Amino acid sequence: MEQLSALLTRPPLVAAVLTPGAAGVLAGAAARLLLARLRRGARVRAPVCELAVAVGWAACGAGWALGLVPPPWVAVLVGLWWLVVAASVTDLVHRRLPDALVLPAFPAALLLVAPLGGEAVLRAATGALLTVAAHAPWHLLAPRALGAGDVKLAAPLGAVLAAAAWPAPLLAAGLAAVFTGGAAATVVVAARLRRRPRPAAIAHGPSMLAATVVTLATVFAAGAPP
């Protein structure tokens, strides 16, 4: 207990949590304002984005302070988490992923991965290509289940996942399918119990984003990233 208390009160850990947490509040506010201005964005009440980004960024800072996240990965993870919050909110509220949000995310991902080295960038680019190629046929076969925005979102997510570890994109894709399937089953059961019409579709983007976060957390816990 004393060791845990000493760890939590250690100045580097406190600073590593509070500083990015405070910055996350500002970044979350920026995300909320940006979504409100986008033509196909979303209007979100404060402080949903602010709190969500702050918590994620604080967790990234804690991971770095505890030695779980290598320093070059901190910028990648905070950028990814900002996208997770902004894209999830939009997809959950309006069931759409704006091009203005997801298209710039891929070059941004490559830029953030660049400090990891040329090999990581090559893995990221290859992972993005393969992930998009894997999602595109499903969109053509079932566009209501997997939208065009989901295919575009696959590029930055696949890039970050592949930069972390080669099996990561495959694991994340499987988890996303499980998450969406579980959500769909829950919604169907709830609709039947309440005797209400079944919803037309379940947004897949939040499942992709959640699966990416879970997969990366697993990879970092295993000490796999460079």
Can you characterise this structure?
This protein is mostly helical and 226 residues long. The protein has one domain. It has helices at residues 2-8, 11-37, 48-65, 71-94, 99-102, 105-113, 118-141, 148-164, 168-193, 205-221. The two termini are 32 Å apart. 43% of the residues are buried.
| Main sheet attributes: strand count, strand direction, barrel closure | none
Mean pLDDT: 91
Helical content, roughly?
over 70%
**Number of spatially distinct domains:** 1
| Total E-strand runs | 0
Radius of gyration: 18 Å
Which structural class do the helices and strands define?
mainly alpha
Terminal CA distance reads: 32 Å
Please write the string of helix (H) and strand (E) elements. Answer: HHHHHHHHHH
Q: Which stretches of 5+ consecutive residues score pLDDT under 50?
A: none
What's the helix count? 10
Strand fraction band? Answer: under 5%
Shape by Cα distribution? globular
Features of the shown structure:
226 residues; Leader peptidase (Prepilin peptidase) / N-methyltransferase
Summarize the SSE layout with pairings.
Elements (H helix, E strand, L loop, with lengths): L1 H7 L2 H27 L10 H18 L5 H24 L4 H4 L2 H9 L4 H24 L6 H17 L3 H26 L11 H17 L5
Helix pairs in contact: 2-3, 2-4, 3-4, 4-6, 4-10, 6-7, 6-8, 7-8, 8-10, 9-10
GO cellular component, one term: plasma membrane
GO molecular function: aspartic-type endopeptidase activity; methyltransferase activity
InterPro entries: Prepilin_IV_endopep_pep, Prepilin_peptidase/N-MTase
Brief overview:
This protein is mainly alpha-helical and 226 residues long. The protein has ten helices and no strands.
